Amino acid sequence: MNEAGQNAGKATLAFVAILLAWQFGAPWARIPAYVLPVPTAIAQKFWQTRAVQLEHLGQTASTTLLGLAAALLVGVLLALLVVYARSLRAVVLPVLAAFNSIPKIAIAPLIVMWFGLDTEPKIVLAFLLALFPIFVNSVTGLGEIEPDMLDLSRLLGGNARRIFVKVRLWHAAPHIADALKVAFPMSLVGSVVGEFISGNRGAGYLVMSGQMTLDTPLVFAALLSITALAMAGIGAVAFFERTFLSWRPSMRSR
Amino acid sequence: MLQAARPLASLAPVDPPAGVSERAGLAVEVRGVRKDFGATTAVAELSFEVRPHQFVSIVGPSGCGKSTALRIIAGLLRSTAGTVTVWGDRVKGPLADAGMVFQAPVLLPWRNVIDNVLFACEMRGERAERYRLRARELIQLAGLRDFEGHYPHELSGGMQQRVSICRSLLLHPRLLLMDEPFGALDVMTRERMGFELLRLCDLGEYTVLFVTHSISEAVLLSDAIVIMRGRGDAAKPHTLEIDLPRPRTLATLRDSRFVELAAAVREEFELGRGS
Questions:
Q1: Among A8, A161, B86, B138, which one is least packed by beta carbons within 10 Å?
Q2: Do residues B73 and B28 make contact, with C-beta atoms less than 8 angstroms apart?
Q3: Does B102 sit within 8 Å of A148, measured CB to CB?
């Protein structure tokens, strides 16, 4: 067995150990099921509600991905503005920094008041939470190119468009991939918090309805769905990295 | 014209475009160039010239302004005073027909060796396919034939710098500018790279302007050496012709004339320090 396989084996073993401790430890410590249901009860609930889980998770996934896509578009465009229009840098950077220091979760009720009870506020919250990490990494990726590389490109006859397509964009790709790994769970948080506050759809709503009815296994089952979605998103970015960014230092096989 | 179809032996630079006047037949003419950064003077009154097919080195200690001078000649920096003329034209912006090699190889990590070399023609807006054969030729000449498909991180520092030199030669530049290209290499590799560069240049009859802080490297490679002694008006740069026979080989390093010339350059530095 290779090293990666061994590590995966160890991780699985640790995970199983935790589940066993939970399964037998919780009843032994006389923790009531409505406080901490045992893993088998959660799994059972998850299986029973699988169709509902899938439906609500699909809703959450769509608002998350829409918010993330919007954040990617706006974040990269703002970064381009900052990289190319140096005079705008002094305006955009402080405004965005100030904006970032507002806890977005705290303004979620305001967003709901502005955008209604349907899917829009969820998308907006997902967008707001994902925007900053994408913007910051895009500025680094598009802007922080070795000066020698830019001088060389100019001496070879490169115009701004060619330098953008063949140098800046490629240089930015791994930075943006890193940003997406952070931004995806962030925008998921945005969607779920939006669903906590209003509406009757989404994995966040499912968590809330479990709480209302003291159906703790349902809360855990919904959390399981949300975690699976987050892992799938990060996994997709990692797959993209392995496939298209195999040249980047952290991806090089030794 | 189709460069890609050219045979191996004709690596010569292409003829000057019609209508370009070559005043006094000089490749580079630097007249009274001065560069101030705020209150500090980086280059004080630099004057020298490079004739076509000459290999000229600019030598000086760290911080004497030699890299700044090269950047001014390349059109990457504007001088405070004085003029630079390249192939008869006043330099106003980045040169369009020059190859450049920096101390770091500055390769694109996402491109393999041949695609890094072809980056040169892509920046000029030409199709890479037209230059693929020429790129192969250069890579072969540089001894990297088996590494065409390798990525920069899979190569040693010396190999990376050879890729960077191939890239600078791809478009048959009439002028090759090199800013301490072997500065980051170990002594053994450095010597070998010097000879390899001479071999490539002899094949193509390039005109080279080479910046280095190594006296022996400058004497070994050059037809003329511009000695920059440091800051201040008292240390005006001075040119020394190197009349060692070509081709230069390892034997040149033991030639008594080589030793004499290297000593003469060193003496210039000592004089500079005294004044």
A1: A161
A2: yes
A3: yes
CA nearest neighbour of B111 among B100, B122, B98, B127: B122
> What secondary structure letter does DSSP report for A36?
S
ipTM surpasses cut 0.95: no
Tell me, yes or no, if B94 comes closer than 8 A to chain A by beta carbon.
Answer: yes
pLDDT digits (tens, 9 = 90+) for B244-273: 888 888 888 888 999 999 998 888 877 765
Q: Where are the alpha helices (DSSP H) in chain B?
A: 66-74, 113-123, 128-141, 157-169, 187-204, 215-221, 256-274
CA–CA distance, B90 with B75 (Å, rounded to integer): 10
Which residues, 6 or more positions from A111, have their beta carbon under 8 angstroms from its beta carbon?
A121, A124, A125, A128, A194
Measured from the Cβ of residue B188, the count of other Cβ atoms closer than 10 Å reads 9
Express each pLDDT in B80-122 by its tens digit: 999 999 999 999 989 987 899 998 999 999 999 999 999 999 9
Q: Give counts: helices (H), strands (E), chain A.
A: 11, 0
- The domain spans of chain B are 23-93+219-275
Fold annotation for B23-93+219-275: Rossmann fold (3.40.50)
- Structural tokens at position A45: 């609930």
> Mean pLDDT, chain A, as a whole number?
90
The burial class, CB within 10 Å (0-12 / 13-18 / 19+), for B135 is: buried
**Shortest CB distance from A157 goes to which of B102, B104, B123?**
B123
CATH fold for the domain made of A35-251:
MetI-like fold (1.10.3720)
Which amino acid is it at A167?
V
- A-B contacts (CB, under 8 Å): 59
> Closest partner residue to B106 among A146, A154, A245, by Cβ?
A146
Mean pLDDT by 10 residues, chain A (254 residues): 80 92 91 90 92 93 96 94 86 86 88 90 94 93 91 90 93 92 94 91 92 91 93 91 81 60
Contact B113, B155 (CB under 8 A): yes
Question: What are the two backbone dihedrals, phi and then psi, of residue A199, each rounded to the nearest 5 degrees?
Answer: 90, 175
pLDDT tens-digit readout, B24-34: 589 999 998 98
